[in-house]
Write a sequence for this structure.
């Protein structure tokens, strides 16, 4: 659990963007009880795996969740800041939820160096913090799609990394909080 002051500052920053919505892609395998918490909070969400899932797989699947500033779910997720459990993104308020879902589902299967299809765990901030700075212009455009900004945990639990696209290139700014 992060200190209350840092949690407040992080929440304020995540919700500081105007005319936009905050979404999270959370790894059910990293957050025990995620699916139950989402269902309890009456928020817009969807599983990013397709098809009928067993209850066991549904518990560990990645979920796209629209977050609201004062919701218990947002508070609960921010308690886990620094545990590499998901990524946050800012999306223009005009973008439909299903377009966001379609985008994230389109980037979860990639080809490795042997041209084999593999599952890309982009929703792990440790993966995205390595991947985004190395993207070519085309890869960056594909990864961002309708996403205006990715907000990820930094290497230190008291930081937020802000990734955006500027002229087809990934731009990074890091924000540190005093804990």
């Amino acid at each position: 659990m992060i200190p209350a002051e840092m949690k407040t500052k992080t929440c304020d920053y995540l919700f500081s963007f105007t005319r936009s919505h905050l979404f999270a892609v959370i790894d059910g395998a990293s957050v025990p009880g995620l699916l139950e918490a989402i269902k309890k909070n009456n928020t817009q969400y969807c599983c990013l795996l397709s098809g009928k899932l067993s209850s066991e797989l549904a518990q560990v699947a990645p979920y796209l969740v629209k977050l609201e500033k004062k919701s218990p779910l947002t508070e609960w997720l921010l308690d886990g800041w620094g545990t590499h459990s998901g990524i946050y993104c800012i999306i223009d308020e005009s973008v439909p939820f299903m377009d966001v879902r379609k985008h994230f589902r389109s980037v979860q299967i990639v080809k490795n160096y042997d041209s084999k299809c593999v599952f890309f765990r982009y929703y792990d901030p440790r993966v995205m913090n390595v991947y985004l700075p190395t993207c070519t212009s085309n890869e960056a455009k594909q990864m961002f799609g309708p996403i205006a900004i990715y907000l990820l945990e930094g290497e230190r639990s008291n930081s937020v990394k802000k990734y955006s696209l500027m002229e087809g290139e990934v731009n990074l700014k890091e924000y540190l909080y005093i804990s």
Summary: DSSP finds seven helices and nine strands in the chain. The chain has a mean pLDDT of 93. Helices lie at 4-14, 34-40, 55-60, 72-79, 97-106, 125-131, 137-144.
